């Protein structure tokens, strides 16, 4: 069986590495000739919305999936009669517009930070009435890793933000001084079987995920899973779905969802019985899901911009290296490492040593 | 860094899957256009001793390794000035001739079953004087998975064996009614660091490995490791080395060695902190070796000739599937599964269910 993946970055790469042991074959569609999943599979070098390349995927692959939200929804929609596409395009459409996404949360009684549509300079001026101070203004689409957003502390900040963002659909969001950020990685197959990984507790740096700890037995897990379950069912979802939430005074507020495998779930490769990557593949092929229970105590550290020396990483006990084969560039995710230990205390000690390798 | 692998079968495939997360690239040399490692890497379709293909590997790869013993020793020897080749060709030369191999064991005070060179029909007739009855006659080279060998129970069996084997260098070996077969997977990097996995206890069926259980804390481990250590040091070895031994009345007798990753070590993918595949790559790149300690209780079951249905395998908790992407054919290794559980007892229960799927 062959799986087509739109996008040939590290998420595609890790899906492929998880899929070969299941006897699967892969094709990726990515316009970059040096896309890091390219060497591992058939690589169609073409724009994401290239009709011929998409048709080729549809003709040669049993299932088509995608590794990021900014794929061509229009291109994929045209293929729906010819190919199975998972996760469903409705989930993709909802998740890639922050306003639609938060409205979906609201419609499912999933609490969110306050938010408001901003379609004009007047809307921006009025936003603090609804959101309080400070607040965030973000593009509704194409934002990731903290890109395309401004923190508005005073009315004076509005002009600079507007100069940068005007002309694009925007959303204002209340700025939440949260106690922590968590995410839940959920997975559902077509026949309805659903599973959840233990919560990830996430730390960001400059808007990019820096560190994610697996938190088995976390008190917030049941609530987070319940919210994820509502999304899975409403969307008739198939595949892995990630839901990021803020915890504020013991209450969870949904921040955003991603209809795909997610950076905060990378620890599952070594830290769960079956990884999010393998479970995504099982789900989209409607195969029995694998165990999501933790294996040891694990955390994941992202390598952003530059990689530490391979020998330094491998010298550390319990550390598992994932270099993506991408050129180093400031702000780019070029690899990660999973740290595994037999106890929570040993994990923190190992993590401390690993973090010391970072610039 | 790019690694060249001679041979593009499942061992190459699993090396490649272990190597991409380290940021490595791969080229395989295999004459079969459908070699199962082909889709995962650059695939040079040429005979194993093709000078141009070998030169290309030497020119583009930092290290060359091999996945089976019957590669072209002559071809590789010619490259030694141009490329690093690990494991060392001396180990390859010793291991692929059963007589040299057993003589090497003997020279290192590693006990073996009785053996004798058979170079003529007269030698065959004389062999039982040295070996007793019954005994085995085997080709010295190109034997694997029980191929190229005969059990001689009476003098009458000799003619049939001779008719089949005459003209090839042969060895006679005492037939050992062993209590069990074990193997030790050892790994050594150029700078001398050495590590050993827990013993594997192996069960064969029709001469092919059927089942291997990881046996942490086995009483025979220290002795087996000591024998492996002598081999590693004598051969100035770099990479993974497997040593198979018979246990007879509490005593270990070396049966054979393999200068490569080994089927009886496949459980290390899920059952050890770092797999034999990753450790082979670390060793040949002279990088720090990874932990060999067990993760849970594991066993490995080979799929020979035919694969069970993927959904049936995946439905079993703790079972990890490894399908090789090879066409099914009687006697061919087409996949394996690792079973992992939290206790030895739970492992046996899971193993029982998995074995029930086999034909």
Automatic annotation (TrEMBL), chains A, B:
Residues annotated as binding ATP: 98, 138, 143-149, 173-176, 181, 204, 255-256
Pfam families: ATP-grasp, PurK_C, RS_preATP-grasp-like
Keywords: ATP-binding, Ligase, Nucleotide-binding, Purine biosynthesis
SUPFAM superfamilies tied to this protein: Glutathione synthetase ATP-binding domain-like, PreATP-grasp domain, Rudiment single hybrid motif
Gene3D superfamilies from the UniProt entry: 3.40.50.20, ATP-grasp fold, A domain (3.30.1490.20), ATP-grasp fold, B domain (3.30.470.20)
Superkingdom per UniProt: Bacteria
Molecular functions per Gene Ontology: 5-(carboxyamino)imidazole ribonucleotide synthase activity; ATP binding; metal ion binding; phosphoribosylaminoimidazole carboxylase activity
Entry keyword Ligase: yes
Catalytic activity entry: 5-amino-1-(5-phospho-beta-D-ribosyl)imidazole + hydrogencarbonate + ATP = 5-carboxyamino-1-(5-phospho-D-ribosyl)imidazole + ADP + phosphate + 2 H(+)
Subunit details: Homodimer.
Family statement: Belongs to the PurK/PurT family.
Function: Catalyzes the ATP-dependent conversion of 5-aminoimidazole ribonucleotide (AIR) and HCO(3)- to N5-carboxyaminoimidazole ribonucleotide (N5-CAIR).
Entry protein name: N5-carboxyaminoimidazole ribonucleotide synthase
Species of provenance: Methylomarinovum tepidoasis
Encoding gene per record: purK
